[in-house]
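Researcher: Please generate the 3D structure of the following complex. Treat every line as part of one assembly.
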Amino acid sequence: MGDNHYRRYVEHRRRTHPGEPILSEREYWRMRHAAAESNPQSRCC
Amino acid sequence: MATPTAAAERIEETRGDVTYIRTDKNLPPVAIIDRSPITVRHRIIFGIIAVLGAIAWAIIAFFRGETVNAVWFVIAAICTYIVGFRFYARLIELKIVKPRDDHATPAELFENGTDYLPTDRRVLFGHHFAAIAGAGPLVGPVLAMQMGYLPGTIWIIIGAVLAGCVQDFLVLSISTRRRGRSLGQMARDELGPIGGAAAIIGVLVIMVILLAVLALVVVQALAQSPWGVFSIAMTIPIALFMGVYLRYLRPGRVTEVSLIGVALLLLAVAGGRWVAETGWGASLFNLSPVTLSWCLIIYGFAASVLPVWLLLAPRDYLSTFMKVGTIALLAVGILLARPLMQAPAISEFATRGDGPVFAGSLFPFLFITIACGALSGFHSLISSGTTPKLLQKESQMRLIGYGGMLTESFVAIMALITAAILNQHLYFTLNAPASVTGGTAETAAEYVNLLPLSGAPITAEQITQAAESVGEESIVSRTGGAPTLAFGMSEVLAKVFGGDALKAFWYHFAIMFEALFILTTVDAGTRVARFMLSDGLSNLGGPLRRLKDPSWRVGAWVCSVIVVAAWGSILLMGVTDPLGGINTLFPLFGIANQLLAAIALTVVTAVVVKKGYLKWAWIPAVPLLWDLIVTLTASWQKIFSGDPKVGYWTQHGICRAAQEADRLCLTAKTADDVDKIVRNTFIQGSLSIVFAVLVVIVFVTGFVMVIRVLRGERPPTTEDEPVPSRIFGPSGLIATKHEKEVQKQWDALRESATPSATSAGTSPA
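Model: Done. Output below.
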């Protein structure tokens, strides 16, 4: 459902951008929702 | 993450029938090609499944006497699905899709920890299923029950295996190889600018009619039902609470907040009875169809402009939880209750074509009424764009694309069963429009007893009693399919859980669950359509170019108003339609959905031919031709039929003449009704023409493309250059022995690299 998304994001950042700052969980979800805001996902019937 | 610059190193190692492919000598294999021949044990198992399926089909098709058990439908469906998945989907995979697990998917290539995320196949299966399945597969089969259970069963199961699943699977595969491009973009790339533009306009128009008809289903289910209105209204404060909880209290605790939400929701459904029995509750929540429509219109607009985190996202979590949970509950209920079929195999309406639920004969209208569950064009919007961004491995597309649609087909079969086990007189009492039932128990009993139905006639008392048993004032002419399904579900579930005492609870639970899906589709759909509209308008240039900026509030508001006004006006037209609303609009919804399938299958067929798999082009071309024949015949009849029950323009002409002569026409009771019919049939007739023309344009551009290829031209395909993959994932639902071995190597590697981290790419959420 999304419970592990933040953990995966942290791993991803560590792996690909080592040493760079990582968003907090709160900030991460704000960013996710901001992304959903400008790119809505369709739901079918 | 795969680095696009990495040198393509491909190391193959074959042990017996199994080939392991590595893209980096320091990493475990990323792909396994298993050429082991089918074992004797498997042959025997599939043989048994095939025989069992055949027996179940024979019982459904040839056993007469109104005592067919619902379990046979479940067996026939599941056996056919297993054979279809194991053999037909595998054939498509081998001959057309040719998955390459040594190539990175868009999810791996662009992984960003947010929307591109290689996701465990089992989790993605759930996501994909929740995105494709909604109220459609529940409503269509219920309405189609007018023609008996057999035609619907055959179309849902065979249609899914040969058409719907093929579409979903192939669209997913071509979008995955194009970095997750949307259907509209692929149409433009593969068919050229004309086909592309027609496809994009088609998608937008189709979306509007879809939203309107789904909203109409909700309105019909909730009108004059204070219990239902209260419980669905409560989903809004519950969603707001969940949104605030996730943003400010405990961000990221999705499962936790969803469980709280579901608990509150059950409380709201249970509390609805009490509220509906109080004086204030009954007056506050007893809304007329027109008032309810306005509420929905305002809600759709609000959901489109409010922040996603506040309403849309939490509602989506709630709806996903309810969807998976309730469908599993219904499956268990049917298997435990094992109800008997009350509907005939084929009814008289199938051949006569004058049934009250929807007009028209079996061909083509049955195949229009059941769109979702057998072949649904709308899925191509999910299979392109959304799902590829989460797909871990190409070989998982069969499970996600083909398997996801099989599951939706199964949902449709369960909906069909719940409608077929109802007393047939009751079924028509619920589903015939008020213009023929007269709206009261007495007149409805009189009307349905004249219909060519088997079984004992029904009395007005029995109808009133049935309404009371589910806690409603009246069940006469509760059209739209949702109340019928809820009634059937309450019978099944009350038999297994709670008995008659809980029947009313289950009925309102089912209504709430359907309304919840539909509202989720309505709010997400309004938003998506708003973006499509502003994107389309911004391409026109000039001052409209500013619409490209999604944060421009004025543009967002204006586009939202246009989208909501478009579906809202069709919704209002439906609820006030003197001809009955659902029975005139639902065919338009089915036609729209399947014309979208024609667009998707045209794109797929063109790609398959361009790639040189001409020999196998029949796999998408056969469903495409069938779909075109069905939808264009239906469109033709809706436009040109001289039968006043079917043809929009014939209805229009009759009422137009009556209007001029100051007379009444068809089911009109006042001069105002006559004006309404003249206006509604004009809009419906025009929409039919627009849909058909757009699809013919797309099909012709696809056809031209195929001819060019056959003449030896090589029009470019837009498949992207493959990039070597650096992750692994099993293909099927259950990992094979070899896959488990390789998975262990990856897990070991991951643990040695980051001791604290768990295997993120592979653990289910």
